[in-house]
Specification:
- The structure is a single chain.
- Helix 2 packs antiparallel against helix 3.
- The two termini are 70 Å apart.
- The longest helix is centred in the C-terminal third of the chain and has 86 residues.
- The strands form 6 sheets. The chain has a 6-stranded mixed sheet, with helices on both faces. Strands 18-17-16-15-19 form a 5-stranded antiparallel sheet, with no helix packed on it. It has a 4-stranded antiparallel sheet with strand order 1-2-4-3.
- It has 783 residues and is an alpha/beta fold.
- It has 6 domains: 153 residues, MutS, DNA mismatch repair protein, Chain A, domain 3 (Orthogonal Bundle), CATH 1.10.1420; 105 residues, Orthogonal Bundle (MutS, DNA mismatch repair protein, Chain A, domain 3), CATH 1.10.1420; 206 residues, Rossmann fold; 72 residues, no CATH class; 73 residues, SH3 type barrels (Roll); 79 residues, 2-Layer Sandwich (Ribosomal Protein S8, Chain: A, domain 1).
- It is built from 23 helices and 23 strands.
Length: 783
């Protein structure tokens, strides 16, 4: 990859940002060495690794990377017999522990059905060196000190050392407490000089205690004397300290030898952990800039959806859609130097470099990037004082180098092509250079302010014009890239806004050729058409979404209606059956009683009379009949506009048109549906005056949504909107609507609900259920 282009596109600043997300020096080292790859397979693997890291960050917030150190130098020195310090051994144990922790963390996520094949594959190669970790942690403390538990001998030595020190202190404290101490000592304290316990004795009393003088104060008035009485005890203490130091060195050497024996395994673990830190650094960086994983291809095609420049504040940068490589392979961005063209150029270049470096790109999902073998960028002021080169000459030197190495697998970015020289010659050179690079099959994005290049996109196949939108009202660029619309000069409009006299502007227009005026007018017309087309597109998309939502709501309501209807019918059948069974049981009891009466000769009842009575009871029992299909017989020949009744739905509607010999398209309220003619019953013919259909949608102002969002509204405005919305919903025939007021302080919610309770068209209100928005939404049932 061309180093000059990397610098021009500011890839080094991406590395600087990424550096802050590495958790260890291992990850930081890899970040500093990060370069885009030209291997499709390698880029694909890098992107997959970063995506797995991003999945971990999204689900868990972070990965356990604390405690990782670059222990490669420690392992190498131990391998050749060097003794490691306690801190180096502590870092070794910490890194081993961090590796085990990260490995267990990824395994736990895999057990939860999170797919992380690449990360799991790498972490599974970690060597299990828990025994070494345990040896070190048993011997070295958290502060890098050698613990008593490192060996039994060290424990014994330190016990002896503490006992000797206690005896020395006890002896010295008795001297301090003696009757003449206040006279002979400068201060009643025990201090240390040359690792030996001493007393601060006044110069004139140095002979009182005898012993060894180790130091004196700056004034010479105080001598630090080791009294003769404790010389032997201090000697024993020093011997114990020497033994302690020898034992500590022996322990460190032994641990270092063990580390050296497993140096290769440790170096492998360091390599894997460095790779993991690097992956998660890329993932955390992606999360911070709201980046996404691009689809990769080898076909020279690029599609960036709402791409942003990663080095500009996300709250200020303008996102753009950019496509290159299918219908056209060259984009020429024309227009005055108002800002935005270079940003668009760098956004494309940086997105490609980031993708090929395994970084996710600052664009929405669905973006696609080609893996280029070479990316060239001629951007910025290349003036070189040292080489006595002008801006134009420096650009030409760079362009000559680019032309020597471009092919069909190359992306070339030209900023202000041909600038810095005579406009006519510069424009001609720009056209010729574009022709040459385009002919070699490269993908090109070039910016220029030469008006001659506006016609370039119309005269060349595979080339398209573009421009950066400029708002004449605010006299500032919007930074929106307009593909297919060449840039135009805004000098006259800007001058007019700034107050330049109209006759001066008219005179200036007279100096411009007729062809130029026609081109400018054509561009202005194109911009207006594009804006109108975009507005129509957004409105159509809104209508489509609302219609789809309404359709889904109606389908759900119809399904619920039929389900409840069938349930009620089944319930009625069961109730009727129970009534019949009960009637039969009572009849049997009556007949039984009559028979008993006859047998007991208490009443004269004949058998045939009993049979006749039972028959009459059975015939009197109610019977359920299956509902027969209603077939409508029409005495009136149905016509479009007729008011009809849909028998199966028990609803009235209007005929729109006949769709077949047996079916009509019927409008019921705001719903249109196909209904068989035999299910229709004529009600009324259309009124002669009325020629419009029963329900129409007349643009945005007449459309009524199924929900009203009041969040952020002032109290008074909110109530006015609710009043109008309820009236519109009633006219549209909606049975139920939703009003979104949010939770907040509750003042807006309470005011809205108080108003709805007293509204003449409101049947009932309730809070939304959990899936409907909870207490932040009020569901309104209309009469």
């Amino acid at each position: 990859m061309n180093n000059k282009s990397l610098k021009s596109l500011e890839f080094d600043k991406i590395r600087e940002q990424l550096l802050h997300f590495a958790a260890s020096s291992l990850g930081q080292k890899r970040v500093k060495e990060l370069m885009p790859s030209t291997s499709f397979a390698e880029v694909e693997r890098w992107q997959a690794e970063t995506d797995e890291g991003a999945t971990v960050i999204r689900l868990k917030g972070k990965a356990p990377l604390d405690g990782i150190f670059d222990i490669a130098p420690h392992a190498k020195r131990a391998k050749i017999g060097g003794m490691l310090s306690p801190n180096e051994l502590k870092e070794t144990a910490s890194t081993l522990r961090a590796g085990r922790r990260l490995q267990r963390f990824i395994e736990d996520m895999a057990d939860d059905d999170v797919s992380l094949p690449l990360l799991s594959e790498q972490l599974q190669t970690l060597y299990d060196l828990f025994d070494i970790e345990k040896l070190i942690t048993n011997a070295i403390g958290d502060q890098g000190e050698v613990l008593d538990s490192a060996s039994e001998k060290l424990r014994t030595i330190r016990h002896q050392l503490r006992a000797n020190e206690a005896r020395v202190r006890e002896k010295l404290e008795s001297m301090i407490r003696s009757s003449n101490a206040a006279t002979t000592l400068s201060d009643s304290i025990i201090t240390i000089r040359n690792d030996r316990f001493v007393l601060p004795v006044k110069q004139e009393y140095k002979g009182v205690y005898g012993g060894i003088i180790h130091d004196q104060s700056s004034s010479g008035q105080t001598l630090f004397i080791e009294p003769q009485a404790i010389v032997a005890l201090n000697n024993a203490l020093q011997e114990a300290k020497a033994s302690e130091q020898q034992e500590i060195e022996r322990i460190l050497i032994q641990l270092s030898v063990t580390v050296g024996e497993y140096a290769s395994e440790l170096l492998h673990n360091v390599h894997v952990l460095g790779a993991m830190d690097f992956v998660f650094a890329k993932a955390r960086y992606s999360h911070s800039i709201k980046a996404s994983k691009p689809t990769l291809n080898n076909e020279g095609y690029m599609k960036l959806v709402k791409a942003r420049h990663p080095l500009i504040d996300r709250n200020q940068v303008v996102a753009n859609d950019i496509m290159l490589g299918k219908d056209y392979t060259t984009i020429v961005i024309t227009g005055p130097n108002t800002g935005g063209k270079t940003v668009a150029l760098k956004t494309v270049g940086l997105s490609c470099l980031m993708a090929q470096a395994g970084l996710q790109i600052p664009a929405l999902d669905g973006s696609e990037i080609c893996v280029f073998e070479k990316i060239f960028a001629d951007i910025g002021d290349e003036q070189s004082i040292e080489q006595s080169l002008s801006t134009f000459s420096s650009h030409m030197v760079n362009i000559v180098e680019i032309l020597d190495d471009v092919d069909e697998n190359t992306l070339v970015l030209f900023d202000e092509l041909g600038a810095g020289t005579d406009p006519q010659e510069g424009a001609a050179l720009a056209i010729s250079i574009l022709d040459e690079v385009h002919a070699r099959g490269s993908r090109i994005i070039a910016t220029t302010h030469y008006p001659e290049l506006k016609a370039y996109g119309y005269n060349r196949e595979g080339v398209i014009n573009a421009s950066v939108e400029f708002n004449v009202d605010t006299l500032s660029p919007t930074y929106r890239l307009l593909i297919g619309v060449p840039g135009r000069s805004n000098a006259f409009e800007i001058s007019k806004k700034l107050g330049l006299q109209p006759w001066i502007i008219e005179n200036a227009k007279g100096y411009i050729g007729e062809d130029t005026n026609k081109v400018e007018n054509m561009i202005a017309s194109l911009e207006e058409s594009r804006r109108q087309a975009e507005q129509d597109k957004h409105e159509a998309r809104d209508y489509l979404r609302t219609a789809e939502k309404l359709h889904n709501d109606l389908q759900r309501e119809m399904q619920q209606y039929y389900a409840e209807k069938d349930a009620e019918l089944e319930d009625a059948k069961l109730k009727a059956q129970k009534i019949i069974e009960k009637a039969k049981e009572e009849a049997e009891e009556i007949i039984s009683d009559l028979r008993n009466l006859r047998l007991n000769k208490q009443a004269e009842v004949k058998e045939h009379e009993l049979i006749e009575a039972r028959k009459r009871l059975e015939e009197a029992a109610p019977k359920l009949k299956k509902k027969k299909k209603v077939v409508s017989k029409q005495d009136h020949e149905l016509q479009p506009g007729d008011e009809v009744k849909v028998l199966s739905l028990n609803s009235k509607g209007a005929l729109i048109e006949r769709v077949s010999n047996k079916e009509w398209l019927v409008q019921i309220g705001i719903m249109k549906m196909k209904v068989k003619e035999q299910d229709l019953q004529f009600v009324n013919a259309p009124k002669p005056v009325e020629t419009k259909p029963l329900a129409t949608v007349k643009g945005k102002d007449f459309h009524v949504s199924l929900e009203l969002d009041l969040r952020g509204e002032r109290y008074e405005n909110a109530l006015l909107r609710v009043e109008k919305y309820i009236d519109d919903a009633v006219l549209a025939g909606y049975p139920r609507v939703s009003i979104i007021h949010g939770k907040g302080t509750g003042a807006l919610r309470q005011g809205v609900q108080e108003y709805l309770k007293n509204h003449r068209s409101v049947k009932s209100i309730r809070f939304g259920e959990q899936g409907e928005g909870g207490s932040g939404v009020t569901i309104v049932e209309l009469k």
